[in-house]
Amino acid sequence: MCGIAGVWKSASHGGSAGGSLEQDVLSMLEPIQHRGPDSGGVWTDDAAGIGLGHRRLAIVDLSPAGHQPMMSQSGRYVITLNGEIYNFPEIKGRLQTEHRLPQLKGTSDTEIALAAIEAWGLEKALKTFNGMFAFALWDKQDKCLYLARDRVGKKPLYFGRTGRGSFVFASELKAFFPLADFERKVSQRAIGMYLELGYVPAPLSIFHGIQKLDAGSFALVRSTAGEAQIQKYWSLPEIVTESTGARKNEANTSTPAHVLRGELDTLLEDAVRIRMMSDVPLGALLSGGIDSSLVVGLMQRISPTPVRTFSIGFQEASHNEAAFAAEVAKHLGTAHEELYVTPSDCLDAVPLMARIYDEPFSDSSQIPTYLVSKLAKQHVTVCLSGDGGDEFFCGYNRYILGGKLIRAKSKIPGPLLWGASSALGLLGPDSWSRLYDGVRSVIPAGTKIPQIGDKIHKLKALLSEKGSLGIYTKLIQQWDLGGGILRGAGGRGRSSDGPGGARDVISEFWNSPGLSDVERMMLADAMTYLPDDIMVKVDRANMAVALEGRAPLLDYRVIEHAWRMPLSAKLTAEESKWPLREILYKMVPRELIDRPKMGFGVPMADWLRGPLRPWAEALLDKARIQNQGLLDPEVVWSTWQEHISGKRNWQAKLWNILMLQAWWDDTRPTI
Fold first, then answer.
1. 237-394+521-592 CATH fold
2. So where are the chain's domains?
3. How far, in Å, CA of 229 to CA of 622, rounded?
4. What is the set of active-site residues?
5. Model's pTM, two decimal places?
6. CATH architecture of 2-234
7. 10 Å Cβ neighbour count for 48?
8. What is the pLDDT of residues 474-533, one digit of tens each?
């Protein structure tokens, strides 16, 4: 796990502000030193105007032989790579059999990756790699630059051009800031997307002229003036279409469910095994939920010694899973560490978020993710996690609730739906909540619904949507741009189905043939929410403390197998993620696992009304937002007032705006 950066200049440009090419690359590496604190390196070709940089977090082959940037055996290619190729021993064996692999200098995966590219070409080599990676590859013979990113988008890669036309790339946006000709001009479209989703979806970045390389893609850049030619080498929508078509063709001779689960168990164990490869201490993040418990159980099945596990807890019972994690750890026999964090621990981390995440990013679980990463780093350098189980095994509540609502709407005549939606709107959220409070005393304690007025009006909005795409978009949406939150271009009057809105991004693959509505939601999350929220959250939190995170459930073989399984095998009448549960139940008693999904969050609603209030009010000041010229100050302030009064719970909307404002203060962009 590392950080990479580089610049390609035309011969007439030279270094920035009179500096050398090497100095430019070194200046780009400085802001991302946290990604690779062990060592750094720069390779330049002044005649070609290309410079590649690398910050190293040494995990495999700790010797100088693993130093990057690294040149291939023939001298044709130079690479700077962030990540790990887990199956490099297997690739090494193939190369030795097929190509008489030359004498290797070390034992790193990067050296094998270069050998594979020389032997098979970039695209074929990429298709053999099983790992998480983002890299830049300079071809000295053809004088061209390649960029590549892993199938799921675990590792980040930004690229674009500066004001003087230099082509730049890096693991994080902050690497571009030291360049004198980098313009911090925000993308209006990206701001709108962020307000809707809470993150900036690829290929956009928050800055005009800079984009993210899509997951499963590689780019070819032939000159500093030419456009990057982007090509997919792995496409999840294509995998999904092929899998659903195969299921239909094999309907009468389909593989029995127990056989598919057995194959999944074997794949998962191998995915865990290859991710336990490390020359430094290794452990796992354990929440006590299905996914992390499964990963830890498989690790303990493989490991001859107790696996080190880590979890954090909260004093607030509604957000605390530490006790469950401790029970799972005790049953599995791991060496468990836990830290109960106080509100002050979390609040101390809040000011760090804008700097860590580089772009506006408002998934509030970024805070506990950072804190548990910090805890783990005190003991290990590599941690496995359970990310990916929800998106591919139907784990999110919105799949179940959204699916039920879509099916119900399809059976109810339009006039009745309109009438029901209108009736729910006759009373405001406050009135519904007061009405509910009047009968609360006769409602069983386990079935009481908090903030019922908000939920009724959310249902009203969902009933008003015409199709499944609209319902899904409304379920994931934070701000509806039609409400006037965004001023200027693309502001008032623009809604989620307007030009360039979130709905347009999702619609590109929403109508993949042969999918149920629930499967469409899963695919949409896997294409957007997973790489641009979950993976961003984990990568930046891990890398802020120089911890390498690995996710066995995101092994592409597991993903492809999951899509071979019919939805009925993953979602039963009673349970979601059924194949994962059945494998886990062999290792952990059901009573330690079967409980309502809690999520990995913080009590943000209460914090905003309490200890975070002074910080929040300063960022939401009406005069400040008016002068900024980006948001409508009246919309923001009225939302804030409703929240602090306790009448509404606008924690997601407000955290969205607060993270935008905190990022703005830290970055000082221009509109």
1. Rossmann fold (3.40.50)
2. 2-234, 237-394+521-592, 604-667
3. 44
4. 2
5. 0.92
6. 4-Layer Sandwich (3.60)
7. 16
8. 999 999 988 889 986 444 434 343 446 888 889 888 988 889 999 999 999 999 999 999
